[in-house]
C-alpha cells in the first residue's frame, strides 16, 4: 500500500514505462556510444555500457526537446520565407517574364520585318535588273533583226543587179559595165557575216547578289537534314598520305612507303584523294576540319581528273577538271584551270564548309560557325563530281 501511496503504480489506462530487456529495470540512462536508452545495471560494473558516454534519460530527452524547438523555429522561418517568396517574388517574376516575352516577340517581329523588308527590296531590285537585262537583250536582237534584214535586202538587190548584167548584156556591154560590177561586188563584200556577240545573250550575272547569296546559303544550310556522309576512296589516296580507319582523315607523311599498291585510280605524285561519293544533281554540303593544316586544298573534281604524273593536269586547281579552295601558309585562293583568285580572309578558318548546287551551277565555300560565305563560283559543272582533297601539312578531316 505504501508503494501505491507514493505513485509507483501506474495510473489506470496509462502505458507502463519500458524496461531494460536484459535486466528488467527502468531505462534511466542514455548510452551515447550505442545510441539507445539503458538501465543502471547496464552502466554498472560488468554492464555492456560500462565506460561509454552516458547521460541521464531526462537530460537526453531535454536535449532532443530543445532540438525540436529549434527545428520548429527554423521551419517556421523557412515557411515564412517561402510564403513571402510565393506572395511577393513570384508575382514579380511572372510580371517580368510576361514583359520580357512581349519585348522578345517585338524584337523577333521587328528583326524579321527588317529582314523581310530587305529581302523584298532586294527581290524588287534583282527582278528589275532581270527585266532590264531581258529588255536590253530583246532590243539588241530586234536591232540585229533590222540590221540583217536590211543587209539581206541589199545583198538581194546586188545579186539581182549582177544576175541582170550577166543575163542581159553581151560581151562588149558586160566589159563596159566592169566598173559597176566591181562597185557592186565591193559593196557586197562590205556586208560582213554575222558574228557571235555577248550583247545578244542574256547576262545571268544580273541575278548575282552578295546579300542573296548569303541569305540563300543560310537558308539552305538551315533546311538541309544533314551533311553528306563523305568518305575517302582509299583506292585514290596518294602514297604521300595516310588514311584513317574511318576513311575521313588524311595525314601528310611526306614520303612514299616502300610497299604501296598502285592502281589506275591512285594519284601517284600529288598528295590528292577523291571521295568515294559522287554527285549527279541536287544540293550537297559537307564540312572539313582544316585547323591543323597550313597547306591544303578542298573542293570538287570531275571523274576525268588524271591521276598519274607530276604535270598540272593532275594538280588540283591547275586544270579544267578541278575547282578548289586552297591554303598555303597565310595565302588563301580559289583555283581552277590555272586561274588564281586571291581571297582576303582576316583569319584562318578552323573548318571549311562546301555547298554544291548542281542545278544552279554554283559552288560555295563558307565558314560553318558563322555561316560567312568565303567564295562562290558559277559554271555549268560536268557530272559526276567528286569531293576532292589535298594536304601537304599535318592533317585534315571530314566532319560528320
Question: Can you describe this structure?
Answer:
The protein is 38% helix and 21% strand. The protein has 400 residues and is of the alpha+beta class. The strands form three sheets. The protein has a seven-stranded antiparallel beta sheet, with helices on one face. Strands 6-15-8-9-10-11 form a six-stranded antiparallel beta sheet, with no helix packed on it. The chain has a three-stranded antiparallel beta sheet with strand order 2-1-3. The longest helix has 112 residues. It is elongated, with a radius of gyration of 47 Å.
Q: So what's the overall shape?
A: elongated
Count the strands? 16
Give start-end ranges of low-pLDDT stretches: 1-10
Along the chain, the helix and strand elements come as HEEHEHHHHEEEEEEEEEEEEE
- Which radius of gyration do the C-alpha atoms yield? 47 Å
> What class would the helix/strand composition place it in?
alpha+beta
Strand content: 15-25%
Mean residue pLDDT: 88
Strand order, sheet with most strands: 4-5-16-7-12-13-14
Helix content: 25-40%
Helix run count: 6
What's the SSE blueprint?
Blueprint: H1 2-5, E1 29-31, E2 36-38, H2 40-43, E3 54-56, H3 57-168, H4 171-176, H5 178-189, H6 210-223, E4 241-243, E5 249-252, E6 272-274, E7 283-289, E8 295-302, E9 322-328, E10 331-336, E11 339-343, E12 351-357, E13 362-367, E14 372-378, E15 385-391, E16 395-399
Antiparallel strand pairs: 1-2, 1-3, 4-5, 5-16, 6-15, 7-12, 7-16, 8-9, 8-15, 9-10, 10-11, 12-13, 13-14
Helix pairs in contact: 3-5
Amino acid at each position: 500500500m505504501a508503494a501505491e501511496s507514493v505513485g509507483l503504480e501506474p495510473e489506470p489506462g496509462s502505458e507502463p514505462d519500458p524496461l531494460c530487456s536484459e535486466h528488467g529495470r527502468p531505462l534511466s540512462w542514455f548510452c551515447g556510444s550505442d545510441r539507445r536508452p539503458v538501465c543502471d545495471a547496464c552502466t554498472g560494473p560488468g554492464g555492456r555500457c560500462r565506460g561509454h558516454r552516458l547521460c541521464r534519460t531526462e537530460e537526453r530527452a531535454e536535449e532532443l526537446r530543445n532540438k525540436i524547438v529549434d527545428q520548429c523555429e527554423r521551419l517556421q522561418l523557412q515557411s515564412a520565407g517561402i510564403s513571402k517568396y510565393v506572395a511577393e517574388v513570384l508575382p514579380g517574376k511572372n510580371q517580368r517574364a510576361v514583359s520580357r516575352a512581349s519585348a522578345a516577340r517585338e524584337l523577333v517581329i521587328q528583326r524579321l520585318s527588317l529582314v523581310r523588308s530587305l529581302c523584298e527590296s532586294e527581290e524588287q531590285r534583282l527582278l528589275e535588273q532581270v527585266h532590264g537585262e531581258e529588255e536590253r537583250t530583246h532590243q539588241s536582237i530586234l536591232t540585229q533583226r533590222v540590221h540583217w534584214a536590211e543587209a539581206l535586202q541589199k545583198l538581194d538587190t546586188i545579186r539581182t543587179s549582177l544576175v541582170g548584167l550577166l543575163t542581159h548584156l553581151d560581151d562588149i556591154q558586160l566589159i563596159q559595165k566592169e566598173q559597176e560590177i566591181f562597185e557592186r561586188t565591193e559593196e557586197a563584200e562590205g556586208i560582213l557575216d554575222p558574228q557571235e556577240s555577248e550583247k545578244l545573250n542574256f547576262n545571268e550575272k544580273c541575278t548575282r547578289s552578295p546579300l542573296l547569296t548569303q541569305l540563300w546559303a543560310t537558308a539552305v544550310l538551315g533546311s538541309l537534314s544533314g551533311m553528306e556522309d563523305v568518305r575517302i576512296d582509299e583506292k585514290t589516296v596518294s602514297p604521300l598520305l595516310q588514311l584513317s580507319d574511318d576513311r575521313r582523315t588524311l595525314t601528310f607523311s611526306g614520303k612514299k612507303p616502300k610497299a604501296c599498291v598502285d592502281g589506275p585510280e591512285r594519284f601517284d605524285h600529288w598528295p590528292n584523294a577523291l571521295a568515294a561519293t559522287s554527285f549527279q544533281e541536287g544540293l550537297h554540303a559537307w564540312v572539313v576540319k582544316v585547323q591543323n593544316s597550313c597547306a591544303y586544298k578542298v573542293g570538287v573534281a570531275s571523274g576525268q581528273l588524271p591521276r598519274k604524273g607530276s604535270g598540272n593536269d593532275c594538280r588540283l586547281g591547275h586544270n579544267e577538271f578541278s575547282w578548289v579552295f586552297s591554303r598555303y601558309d597565310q595565302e588563301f585562293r580559289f583555283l581552277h584551270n590555272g586561274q588564281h583568285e586571291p581571297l582576303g580572309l582576316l583569319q584562318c578558318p578552323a573548318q571549311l564548309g562546301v555547298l554544291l548546287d548542281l542545278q544552279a551551277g554554283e559552288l560555295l565555300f563558307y565558314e560553318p560557325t558563322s555561316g560567312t560565305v568565303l567564295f562562290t563560283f558559277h559554271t555549268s559543272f560536268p557530272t559526276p563530281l567528286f569531293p576532292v582533297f589535298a594536304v601537304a601539312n599535318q592533317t585534315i578531316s571530314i566532319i560528320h
